[in-house]
Amino acid sequence: MTCYPSHLPPLIPPDLRAELLRNGARGEDHIPVIKLFYPRGAPLWLVTAMSQDGDRLFGLADLGFGCPELGYFSLREITSVQGTRGPLIRRDRRFVARYPLSVYVEAARMAGEITEMDILLRLAAGALRTGRSTH
Fold first, then answer.
1. pTM for this model (two decimals)
2. What is the mean pLDDT of each run of 10 residues along the chain (135 residues)?
3. Can you spell out the DSSP letters for the chain?
4. Among residues 8, 39, 55, 84, which is most buried (max CB within 10 A)?
């Protein structure tokens, strides 16, 4: 159960929730399914999977401190961030990932933040292919 109000469209709609749950049952390098963001600041999450409890999400998190982290985070915590008009965290409905999460992780290491810049994503993909990763 999350704190997201029922009168708003769901942060994670049923079709994307189902995809995240399927990914959570398989340990692979998935393409991110959703991008969550805070419109007034830097926090950003690329989410690839959800645990069966419906709360633990897996992906790349960037809270704006220059060190994006790969790991698990709580949907309940994310949706508990409230403003006077309701939840502050939004889903980027136009986000379409083109690479597996590992490429976004590598590009984030290069940039110091989650990036969708095509040139950095291509460089990151190439570095991973040739074994010249920055980590």
1. 0.87
2. 52 95 92 94 94 96 93 92 78 96 97 96 95 69
3. --S--TTSPPSS-HHHHHHHHHHHHS-S-PPP-EEEE-TTSS-EEEEEEE-TTSSEEEEEEE-SSS--EEEEEEHHHHHT-EETTEE--EE-TT----S-HHHHHHHHHHHTS----HHHHHHHHHHHHHT----
4. 55
How many of the other CB atoms lie within 10 Å of CB of 42? 13
Please report, for the chain, the start and end positions of each structural domain, with discontinuous segments joined by +.
Answer: 14-95
Q: How far apart are CA 49 and CA 56, in angstroms?
A: 8
